[in-house]
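[Meeting: bench + compute handoff]

Bench side (C.D.) handed over the final construct sequence. Compute side (W.E.) agreed to return the predicted structure before the next meeting so the bench team could plan truncations. Sequence as handed over:
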Amino acid sequence: MYRAPREKPALADLVPSHWQQLAAGPMQQAKFQILRENQTVEVTLSIFPGDAGGLLANINRWRGQIGLKEAEPAEVAKLAESFEAAGPDAKIVDMTGTDAKTSRPVRLIGAIVPRGERTWFYKLLGDAELAEREKPAFLKFAQTAP
């Protein structure tokens, strides 16, 4: 029996319908915005070869984006939880800091998901309350590779 090859779903097909797709920025594969009342969060996906500098470097990059000081290597185990739903080596971080542009409190939830010879970096950044509300959908998105 012949079966036509299945097309991989577009990234936009893997997210909730209320996530508005935006033009991806430099080094981004996809970008979405979620608006609710006066709250906003953005979700981005970037894919890089290898481990893109390693877990500590990437956590510290995100920490810098929200005004937090760099973490020490010994702190990584406390900051990065296993995210086995996305793979045995996947990690998730959840941090609160300050938006450098607006000086408002923000929450950053990040998922680092190795897939083959590349690493997928998912980031949800914005209003803390809306970030909490969108966290389950964000984690589901990070588990699904097209």
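W.E. noted at the follow-up: Helices lie at 55-65, 76-79, 128-143. C.D. will use this when planning the next construct.
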